[in-house]
Amino acid sequence: MTAVLRLALAAWLLAIASPAIAGPATVAAASSLQFAFPELIERFRAQGGAPVRINYGASGNFRRQIAQGAPFELFLSADEQSVLALDEEGFTEDAGVVYAVGRLAWIQPPGRGALPSEEDALSAVESAIATHRAGEGRPRLALANPEHAPYGIAARQALQQAGLWEASAPLRVMGENVSQAARFALADEARGGLVAYSLALAPTLAERAEVVLIPDDRHAPLRQRMALMPDAGASARALYAWLQGKEAREILARFGFQPPTLPQAPADAS
């Protein structure tokens, strides 16, 4: 084979291989991953992974967007139900896997009041309700909108279990997603809020917030599931596989996510 033919063959092979190997992975990720995911991407890229185009938002909104044809290749949800519903409707390649288990936390600005103990984690909510009923102010309580945010659903469940859901209604302010709820929780007029523990551990929030974990028996488990779309490219598939490995799970653990030690069989989505 002449040198010219060899060069032509190499150029042709590169042209057909590049889209599969080097094309960026397009990812939809729950807002609870907003601070953990940049480190995950950095490590993935350092090990030869392709670039990643990342979009953060509420899992329920992504579920609707994917069903409407949004061109995501990989979806990391903050719950299981959003992924399982898409799988049942044929929009994902399969039911995917649980990649982490999240935790709900109460956060509040420093000096805004006594920080609750974990045993009485919602005492700050009770205090805010008492303040409002006494006509002494309207301290806001932030959470993600439970209509489409899994951490909002968990917050509602915790408040309902404590008998505080209805009483807290005049004080609640809803974030479009859990990241926005965390910002609302630290605003001047807020008493605090119920948000993802992973956000509370992020340096930009940790230095501005006090935090206490909500016991995980106060709400349904926040089992976070991810899945590929049927037309996902090689880059997204490589990222999907890497996120199931030891290094990715160690990074997620530093941001407050528990490893997916529970059985991988889909939970009842009813």
Show the helix and strand layout:
Elements: H1 3-22, E1 25-30, H2 36-46, E2 52-57, H3 59-67, E3 74-76, H4 81-88, E4 97-102, E5 104-108, H5 123-133, E6 140-144, H6 150-161, E7 172-175, H7 178-185, E8 190-196, H8 197-200, H9 203-206, E9 210-213, E10 222-228, H10 234-242, H11 246-254
Parallel strand pairs: 1-2, 1-3, 6-7, 6-8
Antiparallel strand pairs: 3-10, 4-10, 5-8, 5-9
Helix pairs in contact: 2-11, 3-4
Keywords: Metal-binding, Signal
Protein name: Molybdate ABC transporter substrate-binding protein
InterPro entries: ModA (IPR005950), ModA/WtpA (IPR050682)
The whole-number mean of residue pLDDT values reads 89
The percent of residues in helical segments reads 25-40%
Order of neighbouring strands in the sheet with most strands: 2-1-3-10-4
Beginning-to-end CA distance, first to last residue? 63 Å
Largest sheet: 5 strands, mixed
Strand content: 15-25%
| CATH topology category name of the largest domain | D-Maltodextrin-Binding Protein, domain 2
Overall tally of structural domains:
2
CATH class type of the largest domain: Alpha Beta
Give me the number of helical elements: 11
Q: What's the overall geometry?
A: elongated
- Return the structural class: alpha/beta
Q: What is the ordering of alpha helices and beta strands? A: HEHEHEHEEHEHEHEHHEEHH
Radius of gyration: 21 Å
For this structure, what is the CATH homologous superfamily of the largest domain?
Periplasmic binding protein-like II
Low-pLDDT parts are: 3-21, 262-270
